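Technical appendix A lists one of the benchmark inputs used to test multi-chain prediction within the project. The record comprises two sequence entries:
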Amino acid sequence: MTESSMLRTLRRAGWLVLLGLLVEAATLLAPPSPLSFFAFLLGGGLILLGSALFLWRLARQGSAAGP
Amino acid sequence: MILALLALVLGAALLVAVLLARPQLTASPGGKVLAFAALFLLPAMALVGGGQEHLSRATSTQFCLSCHVMEPYGKSLLVDSEEALPAVHFQNRLIDRDHACYTCHTDYTMFGGVSAKMRGMKHLWVNTFGEIPAKLALYSPYQNRECLHCHSGMRKFEQSELHSDIREDLTKNVTSCLECHSVVHDVENVADQPVWAGATLPGQGPEGGKP
């Protein structure tokens, strides 16, 4: 796996996590309502997706490097 | 709590932004640790904390009454009546005003909180994406257990002759509390009823909803 490929994945994961965190921050500032709850779920989904992408690429990089 | 959570979320976002601006940082071992913290550890903590906060908010009176369909139920807490159960409990602060709906509409059983949350998720879905029924109704008849959770052992309740005569029936749910205390939300007529001037709903009044 090339370094640029790793950086590209890092960037994608980073944008997903960043967007999710900003959505989550907005829902914490909003008054309690079903809309803010669903927005939190959406933000949480983005965070999970970004983190999973990062971890998956990290694991692949580790196994490619070997023991 | 909320400030600490916000600081965590915004701190994590800042770290991610730094990584996005300078991805070459991750070439060093320290940068890899930073990336792990910014893209996994801190967001995971923020997610767990945020989830807890939102589940806690979902038990608040303000949350329940934010749905349009619940407006008459909110007004029933404010009516000027000494017979209407919700109004008496709410206005005399016999229940926590910030969790008024949740206090009376949660089953006091081992998994009562869990089932309330499951039902709540269904309500959120129907309210946002589905079709709201013309008339709302409880899933099952109201259980005395929910009243006795607070009233059992309460001096005024236990010393009342009317109650002591049927105490066992009340415990066994043979006689419903609502047979005598029959004025509950009365949403069909609530629009025409006068409101007690001193009553405010959490998040709408000058006191900021504090009980």
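Residues 107 and 115 of chain B are 8 Å apart (CA to CA). The radius of gyration of chain B is 23 Å. Comparable benchmark entries are summarised in Table A2.
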